[in-house]
Amino acid sequence: MNGDYPSDADSDDARVGNVNEELVCPQEFLPTFQAIEGPILTKANQVEYNSKPDSLFFDDGVRSIDFILVYEDEEKVSERKETIVRRKARREYFEASLMKMGLELEATSSVLNDNLIFVKVHVPWEVQCIYAEVLHIKVPIEVNTTPPRPSVWNCFHCVTKYFKPDEDLIKKETDYFTAPFQKNRRDCFYIGDKNHFFTPSMKSRMAYYILCRAPYELNERVKKFGITKLLSGGVYKAAYPLHDCRFNVKSREESCPNERFLLFKEWAHPKNFYKIQPLDLIRRYYGEKIGIYFAWLGFYTFMLALAAVVGLSCFIYGYRTQETNTWSKEVCDPEIGGKIVMCPQCDLCHYWMLNSTCDTSKTLTIFDNFGSLVFAVFMSIWVTVFLEFWKRYQAELEYEWDTVEFLEQGEPPRPEYEAKCIYDRINPVTGVKEMVPYTACGRCFRLSIGIGTVLFWIMLILVSIVAIIVYRLAVFLSLSIKLKDAGDLKNLEPIKEYVTPQMATSVTAGIISFVVIMVLNTLYERVAIWITDYELPRTRTDYENSLTLKMFLFQFVNYYSSCFYIAFVKGKIVGYPGKSVYLLGKYRNEECDPGGCLIELTTQLAIIMGGKAIWNNIQEVLLPWVKNLISRYFNRSTSEKGELPRWEQDFHLQPNLKLGLFYEYLEMVIQFGFVTLFVASFPLAPVLALINNLCEIRIDAWKITTQFRRIVPEKAQDIGAWQPILQGIAILAVATNAMIIAFTSDMIPRLVYYWSFSLHEGYSDHTMKGFINSSLSYFNTSDFSGTALNPPIERLRNVTICRYRDFRFPPGHPREYEYNMHYWHVIAAKMAFIIVVEHIVYLTKFILNYVIPDVPYTIKERIKREKYLTQVILHETNLKLVTKRLRPVIDGFSGHVEAKKDNEIEMSQY
């Protein structure tokens, strides 16, 4: 996008040597910024509204409307005279620049508000040809007659046809071989009707390209150009391409394709949640960038279906076995868990009975079982298969949507980059002198500033997390003191006395954490945009990739830090009763809930995923709808004014967000991280993600089709920087899931006990009986330092021995309270498990990556065929041009030869 400039009273922010330098392309392609001098006399033609609300044309009914500019007539509003004069002068200069660059303009007043003026922009045919070549737009050269290869899905056509859009409404597009348009070889292309040769989205893209580069003020020191700065300065109120009709009513114009109506009916309507998306129509109407997002989201959702089925199966398996689970039954057994007294989990807490955690233990077995181990390995393979098959599908879309050579052809520079080009350098590829905005040292300095700022904000997040942890410990301690000072609570169970301060601490800490996350998100978004603007990336793709990386690093720490803390830090460094570890020398480190840290991690994931999904969907649906409802209420047309024209209806829709699809991608990638990084603790994560995505696709479709102005079409080859981010998450997911199973769950201690220690416990065969007793160590209460604990429950007053979760020698042993051999066996098994699982999974990922090619063989063949045809056609054209130019010379030479022969014949006869 062009120019994120400060205000109407712009500063000298783009100092250059000469305003007459061109911005983007050679002299033969683009008009320069010169010769618009003196008083501005040329203005857009003013016409009256022709009472055709569905019209997409100028008043003459011939020239199409390719873009709309909206401004407020300064003479009818009360503002400072200096502001009025400056805005009017800039607008008139800008419109004169547009007409000098080849655009045609026509203005008309608003039907509802006489102060508003709508300027209709048309790109004539000759200008379309120029900018189609500048933008490397690929157009048809020949119909593709190659028969498509049969697909496996054709065998299931009788079933799959019900999941496809109505083919009678959305007809399949003709398949062409394409090539980048060249103006001087236009005869080589499959033009037909030139009014429909370039699609409306292509013409809107051309118009926006010109709008972003047209000057609005003549200044020898500063290049002042671009519609974005005029929008931020209030010169124009809006700039947007038109929707072709209303979303719920077909246009009455015969020439209207009604693509918006078809998209709503077959795609955006909630009743179509089970249907395949019409990606070709989405791409045709909104451009490749929007199309590739919905293609990725649809493919991700499709792949989630398989993961959801396996995850749901593991959940059902855990649910059905919770009552028969051996270690759960031991916890609930009055003769086992009912006789085990557990040590306090804080300095001012009380003793508690193990069987008081019976319900928590049963719940834990649903998620902590052998099925979760299988599911974690499955998801590690699944994520690799997903990414590899997405690459193949993306390659197919690149070919079908003509973006294979998008980056190779050269993406146009951003206007902000061009405006600050003040240094000369030799292009290492072309060998031609070009202008750049900074030297090599300047670029390193800018990148260093950016990296340093990002690291500072990440450290700020970590500091806030530590501060919240300290808050939790302090509040928990103070609440425990108040409970103790309240006296003996004989009517309360010991576990309730423990949970009450824990719950209060968790709720208040959660609220504070949420506020901190929201505040830091808002602040960092602005900082990240400022840093990226300061770095001055050359192209729009470079800009988005740089911003994406910064924002994801921040969001990664912001969203996942609490999960990483619960999974790998909480309850790991706590010492043992009588010798606890203290934070800052004052606060005793948090221990896990009586049911273990895995159930806490599961709860945290369920709350974050479910709450985040519900909040995002409500926000995406409710806010635009309410804003448009209010807008329609205050701008409702009266019966005598009739129906509003198409351009005014679109004006009252919501403007598109500055960062476009960035937040949509970010939301889905964060969700992808929850689904893959911590899935070993929550097998229902893919199920929740699948349900959310089925809603997300239709919500996003409904939102951009009905509530927002039409998005300016943009070209995109792939999902950009999100691809390597997804690959990084996939690699990290293997390690995190292996470590969750090893260090957070009780899976490895159970396996070690099952295969090694159960025989030593006196059982005749391998069994899980006695596991609970073997996983708890003994502690002599007389070894407590400080004030002796005085539990309020009568039956716990004479406690001499309590138990705690660890593998240590009992009191009275020569090495009392040191780690026993069982502990080292378990640690060795955990490390071996992590190493073996990681190597097996990574080897499998490597094999899959090698076996599954990124580009299907059929696509490679079709790309080669297209290149061959392009070379043949262009070669023949070159031959014709050379022959045409040499024809006079050849004819003259042939005439000279014939004359010479005639002369020789005459001489011989003589």
Automatic annotation (TrEMBL):
<feature type="transmembrane region" description="Helical">
    <location>
        <begin position="370"/>
        <end position="390"/>
    </location>
</feature>
<keyword id="KW-0812">Transmembrane</keyword>
<feature type="transmembrane region" description="Helical">
    <location>
        <begin position="499"/>
        <end position="520"/>
    </location>
</feature>
<comment type="similarity">
    <text>Belongs to the anoctamin family.</text>
</comment>
<dbReference type="Pfam" id="PF16178">
    <property type="entry name" value="Anoct_dimer"/>
</dbReference>
<dbReference type="GO" id="GO:0046983">
    <property type="term" value="F:protein dimerization activity"/>
</dbReference>
<feature type="transmembrane region" description="Helical">
    <location>
        <begin position="725"/>
        <end position="745"/>
    </location>
</feature>
<feature type="transmembrane region" description="Helical">
    <location>
        <begin position="547"/>
        <end position="568"/>
    </location>
</feature>
<feature type="domain" description="Anoctamin dimerisation">
    <location>
        <begin position="57"/>
        <end position="279"/>
    </location>
</feature>
<feature type="transmembrane region" description="Helical">
    <location>
        <begin position="823"/>
        <end position="843"/>
    </location>
</feature>
<dbReference type="GO" id="GO:0005886">
    <property type="term" value="C:plasma membrane"/>
</dbReference>
<keyword id="KW-1003">Cell membrane</keyword>
<keyword id="KW-0325">Glycoprotein</keyword>
<feature type="transmembrane region" description="Helical">
    <location>
        <begin position="454"/>
        <end position="479"/>
    </location>
</feature>
<dbReference type="GO" id="GO:0005254">
    <property type="term" value="F:chloride channel activity"/>
</dbReference>
<feature type="domain" description="Anoctamin transmembrane">
    <location>
        <begin position="282"/>
        <end position="866"/>
    </location>
</feature>
<dbReference type="GO" id="GO:0002040">
    <property type="term" value="P:sprouting angiogenesis"/>
</dbReference>
<dbReference type="GO" id="GO:0061590">
    <property type="term" value="P:calcium activated phosphatidylcholine scrambling"/>
</dbReference>
<dbReference type="InterPro" id="IPR049452">
    <property type="entry name" value="Anoctamin_TM"/>
</dbReference>
<dbReference type="InterPro" id="IPR007632">
    <property type="entry name" value="Anoctamin"/>
</dbReference>
<protein>
    <recommendedName>
        <fullName>Anoctamin</fullName>
    </recommendedName>
</protein>
<feature type="transmembrane region" description="Helical">
    <location>
        <begin position="293"/>
        <end position="319"/>
    </location>
</feature>
<feature type="transmembrane region" description="Helical">
    <location>
        <begin position="668"/>
        <end position="691"/>
    </location>
</feature>
<dbReference type="GO" id="GO:0061589">
    <property type="term" value="P:calcium activated phosphatidylserine scrambling"/>
</dbReference>
<keyword id="KW-1133">Transmembrane helix</keyword>
<dbReference type="Pfam" id="PF04547">
    <property type="entry name" value="Anoctamin"/>
</dbReference>
<dbReference type="InterPro" id="IPR032394">
    <property type="entry name" value="Anoct_dimer"/>
</dbReference>
<keyword id="KW-0472">Membrane</keyword>
